[in-house]
Amino acid sequence: KRISLTEAQKKELCEKKCNNSNLKGVNLAKEYGISEQSVSDILKRSEYWLGLDDAFTLIQAKHQRKPDNPELEEAMSIWVEQAIKNELTLTGHLLQAKAKEFANKFEITRFNASDGWLANFKKRNVIFSYRRRGEAGSVPLEDVLKFRLELQDVLRNYEPRDIFNCDETALFWRLEPSKTLAHGPVLGKKKSKDRVTVMITCNSI
C-alpha cells in the first residue's frame, strides 16, 4: 500500500537530510515507510518543504478535502511523480485527461475530472505551476539545504517588511506573439531580440 506523507513529515525529512548529509535515502525510506524514489522526489523539492511554516501546514492539513476515489488518487499521484522524474511538461488539461483514463480503467462512473477536482488534486499533492528556467545547476543538494536553514536563521532577525527579494527580467518589446490566425500551418520567422531589462523588487508582506 502506498503511503503519503504529510507536509510536516516531508519538511521533517528534508531537515534530517540537511542536518546529516551522510544520511542515505534508503535509511530515510525505511524510517518513513516509503520508497527511495519517493525520498528522492521529496528532496528535489526540499527548498519548498523547508520554507513551509509549521502552523500553516497544520491548518492546511485540517481543511484539506479527502479524495472521493482513493484508488484513482493513488494512481494519479504515482503517475505525476514519474512524469516529473522524466521531466515531462504537465498541464491541467493533461492531468484531467489522465484522470479520466484511470477512471475508465477502474470503472469509476460519475467522474468527469472537473476543474474543481483538478484544483483539489493539486492542493492535496502540492502541485504548482512553474516556468522552466535555464539548465539544472550542479550545486550539491546538501549545500542548498544547509544554506536554506542558515538563511532562515538570518531572516529571523528582521521584520517581514524589511525583507526584500529581487530578480531581473527582460521585456522583449518588439517580439510578436508566437501564435497567429491562419488558414493552415505557417512558417516561423526571425524573432526580434530588442529588449528592456527590468529589476523587480518587493518585500515579504
From TrEMBL:
Record PROSITE patterns: HTH_CENPB (PS51253)
Domain HTH CENPB-type: 60-131
SUPFAM superfamilies in alphabetical order: Homeodomain-like (SSF46689)
Domain of life: Eukaryota
GO cellular component, one term: nucleus
Alphabetically ordered keywords of this record: DNA-binding
Gene Ontology molecular functions: DNA binding
Pfam families in UniProt: HTH_Tnp_Tc5
Gene3D superfamilies: Homeodomain-like (1.10.10.60)
Record-given protein name: 7410_t:CDS:1
Organism: Dentiscutata erythropus
